[in-house]
Amino acid sequence: MDITVNILLTIATAATPLLIAAIGELVVERSGVLNLGVEGMMIMGAVGGFGAGYLTGSPWIGLLAAIALGAVFSLLFAVMTLSLATNQVATGLSLTLLGLGLSGMMGTSFVGQPGARLPNLDIPGLTAIPVIGRLLFGQDPIFYISIALTVAVMWFLFKTRTGLTLRSIGDSHTSAHALGIKVIRYRYLAVIFGGACAGLAGGHLSLVYTPQWVENMTAGRGWIALALVVFASWRPWRVLAGAYIFGAVWIGQLHAQAFGIPVPSQLLSSLPYLATIVVLVLISRNKRLTMMNTPASLGQPFVPDR
Amino acid sequence: MKKLLIALMTAAAALSVAATAEAQEKLKACWVYTGPIGDFGYSYQHDQGRLDVEKALGDKVETAYLENVSEGPDADRAFERLAREGCKIIFGTSFGFMDPEVKVAKKFPDVMFEHATGYKTAENLGIYNARFYEGRYILGQIAAKQSKSGVAGYIVSFPIPEVVMGINSFMLGAQSIKPDFKAKIVWINSWFDPGKEADAAKALFDQGADIIVQHTDSTAPLQVAEERGLQGFGQSSDMIKFAPKAQLTSIVDDWGPYYIGRVNAALDGTWKPGNVWLGIKDGAVKMAPYTNMPDDVKAMAEATEKKIVEGWNPFTGPIAKQDGTPWLKDGEVADDPTLLGMNFYVKGVDDKLPQ
Questions:
Q1: Which is the most buried residue in A132, B13, B157, B234, by most CB within 10 A?
Q2: Is the pLDDT assigned to residue B36 strictly greater than 90?
Q3: Which residues form the signal peptide (chain A) (predicted)?
Q4: Which value does ipTM take for this structure?
């Protein structure tokens, strides 16, 4: 029983950063903006979170710094693509490259230093309940934030008027503009929200997952998050499912190897990617629904005419 | 106008001559790394060696480096660029730089080249490597003594000879203490991914291992051991700061003395291409202080270290291959080419080698 709980906890830790980054990017893409800079914003969050936590000794300040740094960094993308109407794909890619380089430079003095770890939740009486205690009441704080965030985004996009407006901008910015909606302002806010989420995901890496700073420590998780959004066809609950399927298969293949199952490790290593894609393709088989969910003006620059 | 132009050109020419004259006084030594110097692992340790050179030789040298150079055609340009920029001695620190370095070395016969962990040489290209497997034998012995479950978790990157050699040496060390010692092996197909390394460590611990060994570069597995109150070994650097209670020891790469010696040789004109494989006795492989273990285990580790310094090789027969066929006869020592091309397990390894 203990091993099952441990495995589930490990899966949650592996899935959390993917989920947070993907949920943020989902909101951005729903507003019609494609930000390929997730990896860059994530690594900035990781270095900022570690640095602030290390310098102040408080992982909570680190958490706030991670969110802030991700948001500020995404502002750069917002100014370029929204105010100056540059190409979103190129700008996003350069944001990733810039983030990887800049974070390496900022983090030089943090290399080889142990940092502060965010403590796991510990509620007297509840956390000690066998099996479900640790699963429900004993995880790291960012895990709870990630679940709350997913529910909040689901509610916001599909149950609120502002969410409807945001989605309509993503489908047709010209029509939204004609109706008098402030397209650029909405998109600015969406991009900054996405940046804050990516930063938080990075903070999870350097404050919970592996409390340390090393260059390139995101190791491609930003790209996985981006892929999750597309394969989840821009639905929050599918992003949640995708992140956890990825995490489960990933942890499962490690256990299979340790168990001595004679399957080539290269194949096992690629399983999480394959499984996630297959499952998400299966659940989004309905073409009409997928079309409906795809933001129609995704990636197109918008210049309001006066 | 013409006069002014000529005067300017002469001035410029004079300046550039002055610049080269000054540059010639200093020897420019350059390094090419495959990873970021901030990995706190393999590339980090090479860069520490570069800094040692700066410290030891001070004004006599000027150093430069290129990091994150991918192995393959991209490396050609890196080496060529450094050679053109006036580097007199260039160290390529990764296996995959071998062919690019051979190619560029031909183009620049006056530049001295050095390549780590490869096997091709040339008139102006020497090779060097470190015997990390010596340290791994000691890790195996300590693991067998310290483990209560009799099972170690071993996180590995890619099935190349260097890594296979390490697993074999570790197992031989462990079997010398506990003949039925087991290691669970997990390949993560990456040199460096803290998250994956942490996940692999958790999986191995969950399946009953109580000691973690790694042939990947981050401190993540040790941090997991620390959190769980279990033990493990560091890699490349002394990682004690990350796991004050969990780290037993660590194999530390110390390239400084070698680099200082080679750059010195380049300075006084005695440099010749060499072929060295440095071990514990040369100071290139160091064991971090033995901690978190009883005195008798520590004494055993120190005794083995001493034996290795005195010339004993962990790959001394009798040793059988995984399937039980004999490999080395009693007292026979494996030769270096066999070790450098090692693609089979020794007896007792509980894994199928990915091909």
A1: B234
A2: no
A3: none
A4: 0.86
